[in-house]
Amino acid sequence: MGVMIEHFAGVFPLWLAPRQAIVVPVGEKFNDYAEKVLKSLKDAGIRAEADFSSDGLNKKVRNAEQARINYILVVGEKEEASNGVAVRNYKTKEQTESTLSDVIESLRNEITTKKL
Questions:
Q1: Is residue 41 within 8 Å of 91, Cβ to Cβ?
Q2: Single pTM value for the model
Q3: Which of 73, 87, 106, 116 is most buried, by the most CB atoms less than 10 A from its CB?
Q4: Are the C-beta atoms of residues 20 and 71 closer than 8 Å to each other?
Q5: Residues 56, 61, 62, CA angle at the centre, nearest 5°?
């Protein structure tokens, strides 16, 4: 296990990561939608958590990046209206917007193919 940790420098591939995704609500009024997204992820078998702290959005994202969580899912007013999420990939630093079902399908595909 020590060799794997050293090889991946603590940034595990999605299928091996203990925390695969984190849901970050933009503000407190989006906590309900964040709970819904979190439940959908967990129901799909994805190891996820949410940051419901009173910290600002930038601090929540920075904390998630420091924890090396593979995918940061940001939810706010626009995402709630479209039943989607803003996705930030830790490794590539890409930010995209997608529907929740597409994100879940993409994550499950990455997990089952054991993509590095």
A1: no
A2: 0.92
A3: 73
A4: yes
A5: 95
pLDDT (tens digit, 9 = 90+) per residue, 24-44?
A: 999 999 999 999 999 999 999
What are the boundaries of each domain within the chain?
Answer: 14-112
* Strands ordered across the beta sheet of 21-25: 48-50, 21-25, 71-75, 84-89, 95-99
Q: Which two tokens stand for residue 111?
A: 């997990």
CA 68 to each of CA 17, 47, 64, 65, 71: distance values in angstroms, whole numbers, following the listed order: 9, 14, 6, 5, 9
Q: Does domain 14-112 have CATH number 3.30.565.10?
A: no
Q: What pLDDT was estimated at residue 14?
A: 94
